[in-house]
């Protein structure tokens, strides 16, 4: 890599990134698919600068040209993996659509506060050139290309393959994996070139999960429970780590940010567990369960036991803290991971969820002996839904959170959020001793959007963040 000072996008190291400027705006996709509003999804720009007159307000909306896309996660055309390349700049946001399988390329460089559409990759390109559909996670590669993990084939069956886009033209190049070597299911991925490895995760078959969650589909084998280990250079699948029942539905995967690290964590939704994956002394990979949030025995809910449903996890840039959201229980947790094998709970905050003490659910038995939380009210608004997507400020002091998971599941578990819209909140983080507290001065109420209540999802900072940047 060229040795230069800040000539390419991003930062030289994760610790350099922690000293980067404070976030002033964030981008987040807003979804109308699955709601009562027949309008296109859009990309919202939100002002998060406390000194600004439009603080905690949506300052721009970029509607997509199509209906029912289900925008979901986003990534960059270039990130810190291209830091040494002065010809690259982080000026395009890659916005895959989980259901329509379209990929939008958004120009965020010309006017960061008012993005515009640069290009559209049509679903037929993914179908015909790659045999893939339902694109999820997008990462830029040090080569300048863009890689997008997919969850299915064009018929809605599970298929965990990867689409490569040209980083300049955004044309579909083809598959990253070899023919016939896609995983049975796809979802998220993270690569670590120093160890020549990529690890991918599994959600489920798109046709099973598209309209909601059915426990019978788990028993029918339509949801995943494995991590896949790939050779980064040859693109061959080396290992499948079967996590078993405790590791069912492994979603977000996060390597430690330190690029020489040989370990990371994955949040497994169904049983509320976090597994640590690591390289063994003999050079292969293994995984062990390191956190378990127990289910609660309940009445007044769809099942007699309510899992926590860990949906999003992330690591601070200094690899000291791990955060995750329990989308059914309604809390966000902060763990000190200084001892990588024994995470220690140091912060917790409840922000809605299915256990609120004035709701229909009564907890009969809780292994953690926690009282049922009161509903969370911010600036007079009762928070519908539950904390879900997380994004941490570069310095680790602010945690932003939105409440929507996926329109089909939102409608099933939190119908009030479909009616009232989701929200964006901000948590203040104690980075010395650990601890989480809600910032009562910050609320973005997506129930008040011009075209009606909307579901806001994943958060991105223009300068990169701890879930989109990978260091080489």
Automatic annotation (TrEMBL):
Its EC number is 1.8.3.4. Pathway: Organosulfur degradation. It comes from the Eukaryota. The lineage of its organism: Eukaryota, Metazoa, Chordata, Craniata, Vertebrata. It is a peripheral membrane protein. It is an enzyme of class 1 (oxidoreductase). Its main location: nucleus. Catalyzes the oxidation of methanethiol, an organosulfur compound known to be produced in substantial amounts by gut bacteria. Selenium-binding protein which may be involved in the sensing of reactive xenobiotics in the cytoplasm. May be involved in intra-Golgi protein transport. One of its GO terms (biological process) is protein transport. Transmembrane segments: none annotated. It is found in: Nucleus; Cytoplasm, Cytosol; Membrane. Keywords: Acetylation, Cytoplasm, Membrane, Nucleus, Oxidoreductase, Protein transport, Selenium, Transport. GO terms for cellular component: cytosol; membrane; nucleus. It catalyses: methanethiol + O2 + H2O = hydrogen sulfide + formaldehyde + H2O2 + H(+). This is Methanethiol oxidase. GO terms for molecular function: methanethiol oxidase activity; selenium binding. Belongs to the selenium-binding protein family.
């Amino acid at each position: 890599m060229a040795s230069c000072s800040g000539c390419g996008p991003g930062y030289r190291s994760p610790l350099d990134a922690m000293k980067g400027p404070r976030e002033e705006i964030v981008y987040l996709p807003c979804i109308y698919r699955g709601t009562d509003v027949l309008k296109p999804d859009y990309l919202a720009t939100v002002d998060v600068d406390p000194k600004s007159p439009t603080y905690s307000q949506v300052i721009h909306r970029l509607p997509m040209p199509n209906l029912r896309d289900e925008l979901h996660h986003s990534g960059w055309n270039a990130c810190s993996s291209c830091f040494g390349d002065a010809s690259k700049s982080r000026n395009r946001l890659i916005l895959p659509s989980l259901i329509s399988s379209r990929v939008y390329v958004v120009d965020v460089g010309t006017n960061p506060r008012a993005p515009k559409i640069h290009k559209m990759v049509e679903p037929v390109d993914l179908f015909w050139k790659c045999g893939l559909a339902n694109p999820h996670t997008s990462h830029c590669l040090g080569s300048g290309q863009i890689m997008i993990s997919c969850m299915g084939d064009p018929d809605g069956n599970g298929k965990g393959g990867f689409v490569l886009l040209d980083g300049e033209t955004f044309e579909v190049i083809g598959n990253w994996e070899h023919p016939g070597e896609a995983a049975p299911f796809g979802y998220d991925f993270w690569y670590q070139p120093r160890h020549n490895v990529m690890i991918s995760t599994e959600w489920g078959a798109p046709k099973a999960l598209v309209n909601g969650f059915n426990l019978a589909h788990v028993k029918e084998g339509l949801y995943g429970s494995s991590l896949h280990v790939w050779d980064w250079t040859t693109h061959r699948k080396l290992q499948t780590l079967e996590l078993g029942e405790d590791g069912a539905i492994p979603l977000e995967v996060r390597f430690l940010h330190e690029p020489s690290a040989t370990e990371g964590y994955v949040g497994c939704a169904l049983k509320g567990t976090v597994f640590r994956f690591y390289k063994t002394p003999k050079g292969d990979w293994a995984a062990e369960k390191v956190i378990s949030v127990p289910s609660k025995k309940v009445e007044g809910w769809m099942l007699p036991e309510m899992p926590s449903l860990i949906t999003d996890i992330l690591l601070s840039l200094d690899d000291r803290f791990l955060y995750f959201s329990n989308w059914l229980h309604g809390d966000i947790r902060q763990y000190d991971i200084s001892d990588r094998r024994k995470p220690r709970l140091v912060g917790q905050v409840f922000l809605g969820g299915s256990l609120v003490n004035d709701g229909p659910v009564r907890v009969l038995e809780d292994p953690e002996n926690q009282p049922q939380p009161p509903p969370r009210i911010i600036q007079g608004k009762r928070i519908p839904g539950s904390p879900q997507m997380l994004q941490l400020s570069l310095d680790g002091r602010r945690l932003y959170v939105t409440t929507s998971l996926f329109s089909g599941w939102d409608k099933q578990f939190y119908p009030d959020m479909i009616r009232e819209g989701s929200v964006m909140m901000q948590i203040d983080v104690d980075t010395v001793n650990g601890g989480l507290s809600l910032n009562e001065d910050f609320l973005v109420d997506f129930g008040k959007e011009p075209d009606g209540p909307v579901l806001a999802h994943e958060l991105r900072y223009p300068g990169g963040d701890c879930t989109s940047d990978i260091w080489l």
